[in-house]
Write a structure and sequence with these properties.
The structure is a single chain. The chain is of the alpha+beta class. It has one domain (about 30-155): Electron Transport, Fmn-binding Protein, Chain A (Pnp Oxidase, Chain A, Roll). It is built from four helices and nine strands. Strand 4 and strand 5 form a beta hairpin. The longest helix is centred in the last third of the chain and has 15 residues, at about 115-130.
């Protein structure tokens, strides 16, 4: 089965390790995974970070869609993002602002499954009113490894880490 069709297990919520920040240690107040999925789904602009071959980070805004248990986006095959991912698949995705923050750490891979590409194009068109297939550029999916979430006004009570 192609990698992009494999479903991740439901992530396990816990507290992130943040010494000195006064983060509650009990489970009360942990954010629901559905809260993070909502932000990952509804945000229009995302910050996407890759790693250059010399170790320097590269951050750029991207458009994309959350489908199932992955984030999908397109980029130019000659873009810095694509060149970085060809060498190092590790990446970070952050939807929009920071007052309600989601930080997704994972790995990106090119999507080759035609049925997934078709679903992605339809979802992208619906969300952005733009037909991404006209660009004829690669599409990537990000498989989460760990996701962090917090609400600025209550971060000591809401700071949550989901592990996959």
């Amino acid at each position: 089965m192609p990698k992009e069709k494999q479903r991740a297990k439901k992530p396990q919520a816990s507290r992130p390790h943040m010494p000195g920040y006064g983060i509650d240690e009990d489970r009360k107040g942990l954010l629901r995974w559905s809260w993070a999925v909502d932000l990952l789904s509804k945000t229009r602009n995302y910050f996407f970070t890759t790693v250059r071959s010399d170790g320097r980070p590269h951050v750029m805004p991207v458009w994309g869609v959350w489908m199932g248990d992955r984030f999908y986006f397109g980029t130019g095959r000659k873009s810095v993002k694509a060149r970085n991912l060809a060498v190092n698949a590790n990446c970070v995705l952050c939807p929009g602002g920071a007052d309600k923050a989601v930080i997704l750490e994972g790995t990106a891979a090119k999507v080759t499954d035609k049925s997934i590409l078709k679903k992605f194009a339809a979802a992208y068109l619906k969300k952005y009113k733009f037909d991404i297939t006209t660009m004829n550029e690669p599409v990537y999916s990000i498989r989460p490894r760990v996701v962090y979430g917090q609400i600025e006004k209550s971060y000591v009570k809401t700071a949550t880490r989901w592990r996959f």
